[in-house]
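Lecture notes, part 5. Sequence design as translation. It can be helpful to think of inverse folding as translation between two languages: the language of shapes and the language of residues. The source text, in structure tokens, appears below.
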């Protein structure tokens, strides 16, 4: 006798809708990235709207992060957390925080690879293959990270205070913050200057793929990262904590590009260096014991 198949009896509308907005933002980000830097949809945006497609693609991923934070909280508020919601969330995260950031990084670096001329053909080929490898590795690590999270995570994640490995939204935030800051610097330093364009191009080719490679490894690692949403929003807060949150809000209003760089990169490096410190602290007592013996 064949086992009876499980059938999904109901779907919670509001959390699932917000989760689908997350995936839609990721797809729109890929669409904007495919248009390259120049903004050509004059009928879609108001007159005088001077923002590159790469910037718009980055902010769409930021919007996907906001939707990703809201859907879980809506499910807990309405007491409709389910395995279906968790699976749907991870599937949309693959688009928004896996494929979209990798494609954005790849297209941005390609704009400089097409313009900058390298003396050695082998050297340029090595760079191109390294960039493609970093993008592919990022997507694969994001898929593995989200699949592992689905297997190990319970339906009610409100009690979870830490992540095993860098979360995929934070990984995407690191890559996207570099892209948005790059576009901002390009606009204020003179978009028409060849010297500025070439200098930023060399820095982008050297830094952005390495950052993408590094966060890819952190995603599939077991390094503990704090669950900021659960730790900041739960319980009563002291006055210094509230002032710190208020100061961070002012920093975002003052310069959102720098705020994203400091926020996402600081979060990434905090977990990594804490892991290094804890690992070294565990090894030091054992070495001291062997020296005393």
């Amino acid at each position: 006798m064949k086992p009876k198949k499980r059938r999904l009896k109901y779907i919670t509308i509001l959390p699932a809708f917000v989760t689908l907005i997350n995936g839609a933002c990721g797809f729109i980000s890929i669409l904007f990235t495919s248009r390259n830097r120049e903004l050509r949809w004059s009928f879609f945006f108001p007159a005088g709207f001077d923002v590159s497609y790469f910037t718009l693609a980055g902010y769409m991923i930021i919007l996907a992060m906001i939707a990703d934070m809201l859907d879980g909280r809506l499910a807990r508020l309405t007491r409709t957390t389910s395995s279906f919601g968790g699976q749907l969330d991870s599937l949309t995260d693959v688009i928004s925080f896996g494929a979209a950031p990798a494609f954005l990084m790849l297209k941005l670096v390609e704009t400089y690879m097409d313009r900058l001329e390298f003396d050695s053909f082998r050297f340029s080929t090595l760079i191109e293959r390294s960039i493609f490898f970093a993008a592919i590795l990022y997507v694969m690590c994001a898929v593995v990270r989200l699949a592992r999270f689905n297997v190990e995570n319970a339906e009610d994640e409100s009690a979870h205070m830490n992540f095993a490995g860098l979360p995929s939204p934070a990984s995407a935030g690191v890559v996207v913050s570099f892209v948005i800051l790059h576009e901002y610097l390009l606009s204020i330093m003179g978009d028409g200057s060849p010297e500025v364009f070439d200098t930023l191009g060399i820095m982008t080719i050297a830094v952005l793929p390495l950052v993408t490679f590094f966060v890819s490894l952190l995603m599939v690692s077991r390094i503990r990262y704090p669950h900021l949403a659960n730790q900041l929003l739960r319980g009563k807060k002291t006055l210094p904590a509230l002032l710190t949150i208020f100061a961070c809000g002012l920093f975002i209003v003052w310069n959102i590009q720098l705020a994203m760089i400091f926020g996402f990169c600081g979060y990434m490096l905090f977990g990594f260096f804490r892991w290094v410190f804890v690992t070294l602290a565990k090894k030091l007592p054992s070495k001291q014991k062997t020296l005393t013996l």
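The translated text above is only one of many valid answers, since several sequences can fold into similar shapes. The longest helix spans residues 256-292.
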